[in-house]
Amino acid sequence: MDELEIDAVAEVELDDPVLVEGLPGVGHVGSLAVEHLLEELEADSTLVRRVYSQEFPPQVSVEDGVADLTCAEIHAVTVPDGRDLLLLTGDHQAQTNDGHYVLTDAFLDIAEEFGASEVYALGGVPTGELIEEYAVVGAVSDESLLEELEEVGVEFREDEPAGGIVGVSGLLLGLGGRRGFDGACLMGETSGYLVDPKSARAVLEVLEETLGFDLEYESLDERADEMEEVIGKIQEMEQQQQQQQMDVPTDDDLRYIG
Amino acid sequence: MDELEIDAVAEVELDDPVLVEGLPGVGHVGSLAVEHLLEELEADSTLVRRVYSQEFPPQVSVEDGVADLTCAEIHAVTVPDGRDLLLLTGDHQAQTNDGHYVLTDAFLDIAEEFGASEVYALGGVPTGELIEEYAVVGAVSDESLLEELEEVGVEFREDEPAGGIVGVSGLLLGLGGRRGFDGACLMGETSGYLVDPKSARAVLEVLEETLGFDLEYESLDERADEMEEVIGKIQEMEQQQQQQQMDVPTDDDLRYIG
Amino acid sequence: MDELEIDAVAEVELDDPVLVEGLPGVGHVGSLAVEHLLEELEADSTLVRRVYSQEFPPQVSVEDGVADLTCAEIHAVTVPDGRDLLLLTGDHQAQTNDGHYVLTDAFLDIAEEFGASEVYALGGVPTGELIEEYAVVGAVSDESLLEELEEVGVEFREDEPAGGIVGVSGLLLGLGGRRGFDGACLMGETSGYLVDPKSARAVLEVLEETLGFDLEYESLDERADEMEEVIGKIQEMEQQQQQQQMDVPTDDDLRYIG
Amino acid sequence: MDELEIDAVAEVELDDPVLVEGLPGVGHVGSLAVEHLLEELEADSTLVRRVYSQEFPPQVSVEDGVADLTCAEIHAVTVPDGRDLLLLTGDHQAQTNDGHYVLTDAFLDIAEEFGASEVYALGGVPTGELIEEYAVVGAVSDESLLEELEEVGVEFREDEPAGGIVGVSGLLLGLGGRRGFDGACLMGETSGYLVDPKSARAVLEVLEETLGFDLEYESLDERADEMEEVIGKIQEMEQQQQQQQMDVPTDDDLRYIG
């Protein structure tokens, strides 16, 4: 196997599509969002590429006894009344620094092959506390892209995210911008402790407005309700502990639960 | 030395052989199993390939003062009344992520060279507690392989192993499947704390039925008896501690003992 | 993207320029110094090269919503009454051992391209305690360079810095020396716990004498005053703690604050 | 700079020389031994090769203000009444697994260039306790080499060193053996906590007998006396603590002191 192997599973003609990335990350916001997109637009979508790489962990996933080699998948979606999409999903990020560069370049190559010149990277931005109002924070590859996104409610903040954007999401803007792509990263606010379907919905609602598709949110809301129950139980336990100990619990009491 | 150097120690004509891998891993189940195979079938086996690689640790092992460079070995076995075998053993796994890809590809190259189109990866799956009944959990590279293995008692479970299969065992299915190999991973249940000859026997008994060879288990059972004694002593100590402290010992009291 | 991509942003004719490096490091001394140089000499400076590399972290920085791919920048400065300069800055060091070698070679290539044959690497040397008198410790690529720097107050010590000089600063002397560059590393003494504008000023004052430019220090001194306030507050807190506990606080009470 | 750069500093005609390696390791036994050899045989030795590599840490050492790029050095020694020598020293080991392979191959290339077909790797084997009688434990690349070394007092033990030999010392036997070199590793027993000149002397005394040179040990013995004093003080402190606390100190009370 070479460092990178791309399987051309199918070919689809797309009209000026947009690459939308949702690999695993903070609060699983990006992957929840793109998986929901795939589910809702399933009738119009086709798996077109699988990307295998030595940069992924050396691993197979197993479902009902059948093993699948770790890869990233790109689905083509011909959206009836909106922009065509290329949806990028996968179970893993690259395992090394330069692996992120290698994979991002491969994803951009595929996007170019299908005629895309725009990319949206979806993810979460951790706030350290439970969220009431789900703001969507943005970053763009070029100043000219700010206004249109501000109009649909994306917030651009002076020094946020403070540490920059790391991994494929960041590089899709950075390397993408160098290659002539217009790129935006949409990051839903999320506590950072829990898988967060509500944050994913906030991100998708922005995308609906900019890309012109219509989604239903039933399945995502169900998942959010399940998480609410988990949070409710945690808060109950916290209150009991507080009463018992008069000792404020820390964020460490909350663990990543999915 | 190149990244990979394969010494062709001998050539043997095999008839449709099966590659059986037993590198070190959980409970040493895979390596115990393949080493027992080698011991029992010694009369019919020949060392055919040594694989040296910069992906292995930079190390020699020393026995009676003589140093041997870390490598993996492949023995060819012409089984009288069963399928011919290629047995893969070694003291070490690769030390990096992409090393697993590089080595697995090398092992599959050798398998192809000897005309193999099937591969069995042997290993253990940790349960976290001492085992009474040794189930063998399976994973396959293709759905069509499920039925035959279910018939000989291999269990295929919905979401197991939960984290997938990591390392050469996983990639023999993943990369092997992509290259046209039929692959199965047989994982004996094991506590994960102890070297486990009983789990190795459970895995070998499945292999006997599918590949048609006959093994004696005297030496493996002796090793199992030794481990039983160790376990007995640990449990005795635990009970004494419990009586003394009325404090339940954790799994951490058990260490990897070989 | 290749391992290394150098954007030629502009071309400037320089007369026997000196490469001055200020990448992040101990007390941010080097980066504070070179950024202050850039600020003060802004009218005469031009951004000439951007260096992108897979050796940098896979990351964009974000300012007011606009993302920029991690890179190092080289500005050319035509100093009216002094030596021309090539100023090297950036937000990150390489992430791997060999990355430092790769980037240093790239920086030296660019320096050669502009006709430079001298290099100054600026940095800090940690003393473990707050500094009263800011000495500048030096190291050079060749013995013949000692005298001139001793004359302007640089101290050369028998076994300092004890662990040698690590990273690009060290390699600019080591690799630079091998390629025929005259190289000096100027290290301002600094506690190692705090961003240290005073140490940066001490280093710059040496450079003024050797390279013949004139700087004002207003903005750097303001930053130093802010740090003094921080230090004052820390010392006050320490004294209070000492009175309360009669227990001497350790250096661990001081954290990196910038 | 390439991954590897070898400077040919001088050429010397040697008669069937032996490569003797003393890079840093347990108790600094190997490096103390080879540095003492260099010191004692200085009149007959010439620096012939410097090996620079991206596998070494990205670092310069500084002595009296002058920086030197990390490298390994090979000196040629024409021993009046004994075998000619190639002495390999340096301040650092490789920083990665495959770096050890790369550097060892480079060292063997140079040995071949000077006509060597034998290699001695010198080092220490940690015992975990202070040593009274300094045994020298051996390992060889080929069984035929055992007898001659046993005759001069080298001990070959069934399963020692238990974890094999890691790094360049191990690979000089492993890779060397594959390339046709006769290789031996001589490991002086040492506590593992202290720089150990006595262990280095034990190793050198073996080498004197096999290679036929004569050494004086004055400077090494002085260094040993200094270490004895350090050990004496530590033991005194331990006894005081024991009397005070009736609590046995552990090996952790001893630190690496050089």
TrEMBL record, chains A, B, C, D:
Residues 236-258 are annotated as: Disordered. SUPFAM superfamilies: Cgl1923-like. This is Proteasome assembly chaperone family protein. NCBIfam families: proteasome assembly chaperone family protein. Pfam families: PAC2. PANTHER family: 3-ISOPROPYLMALATE DEHYDRATASE, 3-ISOPROPYLMALATE DEHYDRATASE-RELATED. It comes from Haloterrigena turkmenica (strain ATCC 51198 / DSM 5511 / JCM 9101 / NCIMB 13204 / VKM B-1734 / 4k). Residues 237-246 have a biased composition (Low complexity).
